[in-house]
Structures are given as structure tokens and as C-alpha cells.
Amino acid sequence: MKTAFLGLGVMGGYMSANLAASGYSVNAWNRTSDRPGVKIALDAGANIVDSIQEAVTDVDIICTCVSDIPDVEAVILGENGVIHFAKPGAIIIDFSTIGSAAARHISQQLEPAQIQFLDAPVSGGDIGAKNGTLTIMVGGNEKIFETAKPILETMGKNIRYCGNVGSGQAVKLCNQILCSLNLVGICEAMLLAEKQGIDPNLVVEICSTGAAGSWALSNLGLKVAHGDFEPGFMIKHILKDLRIIQEMVNSDLPLPGTELADHLFKIVQKLDQGLGGNQGTQAMIRAYNRS
Ligand code: NAP
Hints:
This protein is of the alpha/beta class.
């Protein structure tokens, strides 16, 4: 199978590299040519191309990993998007987090061109992307999922079919609530440790093996404590995800914890002359001390 990968950001750079390193032919494209992910893909054997057209023409599987809903729509349905150049029968796997409604809309728009669509949002962060250990939650036609599975297995370890198109996104939004509220707990536990004169390393080491253990605590706990705010997963992206959740539930389903996390992330987003959203989500701690 010939493949293409569109969007070589923090996640897409490593994911396309793992695909290429597994022996697949990968045409890789990024809007901005000098991003670190472009070199990561190139070094792993991907063929870097200059346009979406060049990337997807005569290709069987097209992976996309960009930012927000308008970005995925631009790459797939836009003037120079995949829809105009992919062959009938091609499969698009979108790894971006965009919510179920957007996934269903894109899938419907692709139907007349006989292009298949799977929503396949991921969890596991840049570390999971680099190590090929992502959790991937997939929505769409089950037979298409089975065809695409070997591709997904080059990037992830826990690959789950969730149901019709949009179902992967539905699970991913639940995941984002868990991630956000985990971080509230981590920040407050770290502040309490500091107040009691307890070494944060001790809190992470001990609590991560007990009932409070989580990916977030093991991977972000010490970063919170040590003020390492490099992304990882940027605050601007989690705010996108919380926005999608809040727009979807409207006022039908009160989610006070999600609202609190959203509020704390927004405080940090405004820091650094408005550039605070480019930090990793663990920078939530800055909402507490505002420096
Ligand atoms: P990122 O580093 O900010 O990369 C975003 C990528 O999308 C870049 O390649 C960017 O191209 C491209 N892009 C954005 N808008 C575009 C447009 N209109 N047209 C063409 N390309 C466009 O983000 P990321 O961390 O890789 O995340 C990508 C997606 O995965 C997001 O939906 C995010 O929520 C999700 N995700 C991220 C993580 C994580 O830990 N980072 C984990 C799970 C899920 P340029 O380089 O030209 O800007």
C-alpha cells in the first residue's frame, strides 16, 4: 500500500516517521517546510513533497494530523485539498482531534468522490507518537478499519474500533476531560507537597504506583513540579478540545470540572504576551502562581 502523511507537527512528524520506518512508502507533506517534524520524517525514509496533490495522487491510504476543524477541512475538502486529487477507493485516516460532528460532515462530503474516511484520534502525547505506542480510537466502516489496521499498528499499541464514523472522536473527547482534570489534581497535589515541605519527586514516585496513578502523573508530574513547560501537548490544542466539548453539550450537560480546567488553561494562555498557549498543558500550574 502506498501512503501519504499530511501535517508533520509534534505528532505527525513522529507518526509519519514510524510509518516510513516500518517499510511503507510515505509521501509526507507539511504546510511549512522548515518544521522539525519534516526532518524527522525525512530521516526515517519518507519522501518529502511540496503539495497535497503530489502527496496523495495514486496513493491508497492518506493520513492527516493537523490542528482544528477548519484546518482538517482545508486539507481534505479545501481548494487544493485531498478530495480533488485522491483516487476513488482511497482511505483517509484523520488523527486530529475535531469532535464527532466535524468527522461525520467530512465523511459525508467525501462520499460522492468515493473516498473512505476513518476518524482516528490518538492519545499518548509526543512520547507515544515517538515510541509508536499511541492509543488510537477509530470510527468509521469496520471493514475499512480492518484494511487500515496494519498502518495504525506502525504508530500505536492499543488500537480500538469504536463504532460508526465520529465514534473515535466521541471517545477522544472523554479522554480530554480525563486529561484536563487529572492535571488540576496534579497541580494542586504539587502545591500541597510544596507547602508541606515534601519533595515532589517523592509524591510522583509513590502516588503513581497507588490508586492515584495515571499517565499524566507519571509523565507530567515532575514537569509541573520543575517548571518544565515545553510541549508535548500544547495548551492551545486542549483549549480547542474543551471548546468542542462545551459547544457540543451546550447547557444540556453541566460539566463544572471541565469548566474549571478550561478557566485555568485560559489564564495561562494569556501569559507571555498572549503566547502562553504554545506551552505544554502541564503549564496549567502557572494559573495558580500567575508568573
Ligand atoms: P502541532 O505541532 O501544532 O502541529 C499542527 C500541524 O498542523 C502542523 O503540521 C501544521 O502545519 C498543520 N496545520 C495546521 N493548520 C493547517 C492548515 N490550515 N493547513 C495545513 N496544515 C495545517 O500539533 P500536534 O501536537 O501535532 O497536534 C495535531 C493534532 O493532534 C491536533 O488536533 C491535536 O489536538 C492532536 N493531538 C495532539 C497530541 C499531542 O500530545 N501533541 C496528542 C493527541 C492528539 P504548520 O507547521 O505549517 O503550522
